[in-house]
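Possible regression after last week's pipeline update?

I re-ran a chain I had predicted before the update to compare outputs. Posting the input and the new output here so someone can diff against the archived version. Not blocking, just want to make sure nothing changed silently.
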Amino acid sequence: MSGIDEIFRRAKEGRPLFVNREALRPEYVPATLPFRDAQTKAIAQVLAPILRGSKPSNLLLYGKTGTGKTAVTNYVLSKLKAEANTSDLILAYVNTRLADGEYRTLADFAKFLDLRKEKQIPLTGLAIGEVVDRISDNIKSNKKKVVLVLDEIDYLVKLFGDDILYAFTRSGERLAPGFLALVGISNDLKFKEGLDPRVLSSLSEEELVFPPYTVDELREILTERAKMAFRPSVASSAAINMCAAIAGSEHGDARRAIDLLRIAGEVAEREGLSEIDESCIRRASDKMEHDRVDEAIRSLPVQNKAILLAVSMFNGGTNTGELYIAYSNLCKKIGVETLTQRRMSGILGDLDLLGLVEASVVSKGRRGRTKKIQLLIGKDALEKTFSEDTTFGAAN
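New output (post-update):
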């Protein structure tokens, strides 16, 4: 029997461990959201004026990945939609990282207004200003009350600027008798520093911070999800404790904790085990870390990739001056624009936040200070990812 035949045989004959795998998916929104009651009520209070036909304040939500921002927002919006029970209320959600561009962000938004169905906004071909005008005219002429959630709004602003935000935050009278309220969700508390002051004053009318989950909170969340997802006794308290401890040590990320438990369950199921053990969790954690790094590298803009590849050329780390020379030479080799050293330093900060490099300032005594820059990920994973990139394949 071949290896594939054995895999399929075990899949058919083995006893499934899951009864509801979807309960451990990132997009799943449970009936209750533990430890987020205060945030749920705060968002509901901001959006409640919609039920009286009034425009609510714009809202910014901050917090690290996996702190419940998106889940709580979608939960409140679902309750709001049910309570309003009116066709002129439009609740739109766009993840700007997945949209990956101003035009696609607007086109995804247009779907909620049926503008894509009416072929008024094609997938490509119009100027950004024209798309904004058509969206605005639709809201005004149909007297629509719109809440637009822009998830990972920091990604949109960092890569494409705040032109869309400026257009929508300054369009109040133009949309009357309709209105558009914005809810921005950000993983970066500092992203506002690059906003136009006029955008900032309009966008951040209300702000709310989501704190990380504690290990005890993660344990309770996983316990409830495990009851929905697995057969009895598949996820022991020891397995749940281990998943909570691993995720709790990484900024209280509930999404990672839930994913870890799901992948560990899939590993156990593939191995024909009756329960999740420590080995399953370790293997699941290793897989997630590999996938996280791979996805982080693949989704980087070209300039970020060039700087990351330049950092990898120095085995023991380097400083800003040496790195800039290597980066400049690489840009010439692959035929992309060379940024200034100051801009390169800014991108290094972004790569540091992603955990791909470490860019720390070290003292040199009387000679002042310098920045020590070194790669934090395995070069093998980096080289494999870049070898598949048409821009960098030849340079790697």
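Follow-up from reviewer: compared with the archived run. Residues 300-387 form a domain with the Arc Repressor Mutant, subunit A fold (CATH 1.10.10.10). Marking as no regression found.
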